[in-house]
Amino acid sequence: MQISPILAALRYHKAGVVLIAMQIALTLAIVCNAMFIIHQRLVRMDKPSGVEESGLLVVKNEWAGKPATGQIASLMAADLDTLRKMPGVANVYATNTYPLSNGGFANGIGHSPDKRNYVSVTAVYFSDENTLSTLGLKLVEGRNFNADEINGLGDNDKIAPAVIIVTRELARRLYPDGSALGKTAYISNEPSIIIGIVDRLQIPWVDNSMARWADCSTLLPFRNLVTITHYLIRTQPEEIEDVATRVRATLYATQRLRVIRPKDGVKTFAQVRAAAYKSDRGMAILMGVISVILVATTAAGIVGLASFWVGQRRKQIGVRRALGATRQDILGYFLTENLLICMAGVVLGGLLAIGLNLWLMKQFEMERIAPGYVLAGVAMLLLLGQCAVFAPAWRASHVPPVEATRSV
Amino acid sequence: MFTYYLQLGLRSLRRNPMLTALMVMAIGFGVSASMITYSVFRAVSGNPIPEKSSQLFVPQVDNWGPQQNEKGEPPGALDYIDAIALMRAHQASRQTLIYPVMLSSPQPGSSSTLVSTGGYAVMSDFFPMFNVPFLYGNAWTGSDDEKRAADIVLSEEFNQRMFGGANSVGKNITLSGHDYRVVGVAKHWDPSPRFYAVWSDSAFSDSPDFYVLLNRMLDLQIDTSGRNSCRGRLEFNGWNQWLQSDCVWMMPWVELDSSSEVARYRQFLEAYAADQQHAGRFAWSPNIRLRNVMGWLEEQKVVPPESRISLAVASGFFIICLVNTIGLLLAKFMRRAAEIGVRRALGATRHEIYAQYLVEAGAVGLAGGVLGLVLTAAGMSGVGLLFEPEIAKLAHLDVSLIGLTLMVAILATIAAAFYPAWRAAQVQPAWQLKSN
């Protein structure tokens, strides 16, 4: 296939060539970035929380009328007892927050009481001896809390745990050169002994800004005796719906002076996860839909313009056929023409894709796009161009040589 | 002439239904994607208080220092010590502190069941500063602030729930076991985004039920229900030590009516921070900010990144659709070169050809706009997929959006048609006639 006559012919269709190349370029720029965003969001959503999620239920309880710390302690003990006795409930504990909840607090943890000098930030989870089995956390070293190590903690009370359990990632950061078990760390201005290490426990937040320490969590042996408490309930997985429908009424039956919101007071962990990653999921779907429509629009545009060109050149095609060009020659001509235009488009589009990615990085703290995405996009669009132009080119190849003799 | 061109245009559009459908769909999809994302963007990025947004300021004082602050920026709220000190100094014509509180109230009709209710602890200037409209009664006064009275202003909606919408001024209401005196009922007022509390709460959450006297909340030791941000380790013990800690949780606002007042207040903040440095409380030189409403919303990144990204991508999509339309229009118009040649030979001027094809494009744009409108209406229900419910509910199809959709579709299509129509007008009649 000779390229120079194709290039020569293209000079007579500058506008159409520029339009198709531009469309290919813009489509490439947007589609590769969209695919990259989808991939990133899926990776985020795939992150394991470390929690055995099926069969886990969360109840948010607010005590009415600001009871005193001692009162809350007995109310909470009664609640835990009631919940544990419910049919279908395997275990339960009370805490300030839980993974993916998007609430709670974080703190510096390090090797000295000087608070400006910490090794890592860590999420603070108040826990008791039932936490590990309720959440289904995997203890890889050391031991669980004992019941007698759990203390009550009133509003704004000083937090100074004697013992803590940390995640493997946090342990590695605190003691990179050996086991952290039995060593001390400062999460308050007093030392705490690390008695256990769990494999994995995600922090409550899923924001990108906290991704650097997303696996650095610490379990503290406290019952947080404040007005708002979350009960985490481990049920038999098949009974979770049943427990979820009964739990609110069961708790109200023991004590009325509380608020468990009908709307979101009781949530399964599946709902918690869906809520935490809602915007990621939505973003992935939006980008997917836009990409599909975009590719379809671009293909349709190529079909439209190529059909127009074929219609315009029927006479020339007839002449070429009459002079001995085969159908394959004509088909090849249009396919090659399209390939040349698309190649110009993808070169420009590759640059645009990187430019758009740089802009997104600057505006939204996105990561740098992997070159694979641009290359895959280039291949996809070249193929798309060939597929789109095939039908008009096929029709062109079937223009009979006799067309050359007709006047219109 | 216009109707004649329109007839010609419609006839020509009918001649290639495929090509026409392609163009209409491209415009329709493009404009609806842009409009759906724009409706969300418009809702989250608007000016919530246009009449005063340049007179209301958030003073910020860095009480964390360069080692612990957020990349050199002072925290977005004040700790108790600084907040109270700024209020005592009273260097602005109006000023208030704000923090969100969550209390429980009896459910109307059943005294034994409780529901939680959210509001803001504020000072008397809050109401005139933010132009809060009143249905009944009034705000409390500055002297009530001093007296630490148990005064409360209810929202219209909360008053409806608790008192059936009656004038409740002077009545008592019990929240979390404490009695409050209703001094006023605010007419429905919920600026979006809720600029005055964005640091602590979601900027688009449910509207507050009440505004309660801040000093009274402090006396009852009622904690913030919103954000409380501390640096370093947990070293305080109990309410009083918490108040003295570096935890920031109080949102300050000041009203400054002229640029000279703004300059003066800035100097005052500098001097205050310098005093704290001299007193040994801060080990760093003054680091203060004074931002007005729009500057503050930008700093707090109130517009969710999803909204910007989706608007940017949708706009890019629309541009591609337009490029596509230019190509298709070009193909369509140039196919009729012979017809144009005849019209030109019969005396039509270039301008007339130009006008004819622009009108035809306008018809395509209108059809695309109508399709876009249908798709936009359908897509609005999908907004909830991407955004939190409180943001999704802000996006809706109103008259201005309908008008904008149609206008954008038509104008964009006509703009896209400039070049194809120009090419059509350039057709040489002699050439076309000769080849026939």
Automatic annotation (TrEMBL), chain A:
InterPro entries reported for this sequence: ABC3_permease_C (IPR003838), MacB_PCD (IPR025857), Macrolide_Exporter_MacB (IPR050250)
Domain MacB-like periplasmic core, first and last residues per copy: 34-248
Residues in ABC3 transporter permease C-terminal domain copies: 289-401
Bilayer topology: Multi-pass membrane protein
Entry keywords, A to Z: Cell membrane, Membrane, Transmembrane, Transmembrane helix
Transmembrane parts of this sequence: 15-38, 283-310, 330-360, 372-394
Pfam families: FtsX (PF02687), MacB_PCD (PF12704)
Localization per Swiss-Prot or TrEMBL: Cell membrane
Family stated for the protein in its record: Belongs to the ABC-4 integral membrane protein family.
UniProt-recorded name of the protein: ABC transporter permease
Organism: Dyella acidisoli
Gene: ybjZ_9
From TrEMBL, chain B:
GO function term, MF aspect, one: ATP binding
Domain of life: Bacteria
Subcellular locations according to the entry: Cell membrane
ABC3 transporter permease C-terminal domain segment(s): 313-429
Domain MacB-like periplasmic core residue range list: 20-214
Keywords, in A-Z order: ATP-binding, Cell membrane, Membrane, Nucleotide-binding, Transmembrane, Transmembrane helix
Transmembrane segments: 21-41, 309-333, 354-387, 399-422
InterPro entries xref list: ABC3_permease_C, MacB_PCD, Macrolide_Exporter_MacB
Primary subcellular site in the record, as a coarse category: membrane
Protein name: ABC transporter ATP-binding protein
Organismal lineage: Bacteria, Pseudomonadati, Pseudomonadota, Gammaproteobacteria, Lysobacterales
